[in-house]
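Researcher: We're teaching a course module on how sequence relates to structure. For the next exercise, students receive a sequence and then see the predicted structure as tokens, so they can try to spot secondary structure elements on their own. Here is the exercise chain.
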Amino acid sequence: MQQTDDLLRLLLGAHALTRIASLETKSDAPAAQWRTLALLRDHGPQRLGDLATLSRVTQPGMTRLATQMADAGLIARSADAHDSRVSILSLTPAGAAALDAWLTLLGETLAPRFDALGEEDRAVLRRAADILTAVAAPLAVTR
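Model: And here is the predicted structure for the students to work with:
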């Protein structure tokens, strides 16, 4: 199926670019940290378990990551108003600034790979980005 093949090639290409950028920026922060900060920015405060699901890590893994990020001041942890056993994680201003800095560095690192593209190809990439953003927009955890 051509459509499926195209979607897979797009997904694999995006993953490859992410790996290349991580290597070229020499970032030692785990990808899950940036993914988690972006999820908190885009979806607001989340229960730890829901955030683990959204970020594709185990709940114990998210607990460890959340502890590291809270210690670094990137996120804040609070108790759920309805269930004090549940932690709610939210993005801090420092976390938002770190994410913005990372995204800027990521963009600057990848930009040279696209310098040779003409305006028509750049328009295709913008359109593809718009489509992917729209398709991913309904991302949510169902409880």
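Model: If you want an answer key for the exercise: The mean pLDDT is 89. Helices lie at 2-25, 31-43, 48-55, 59-71, 93-110, 119-136.
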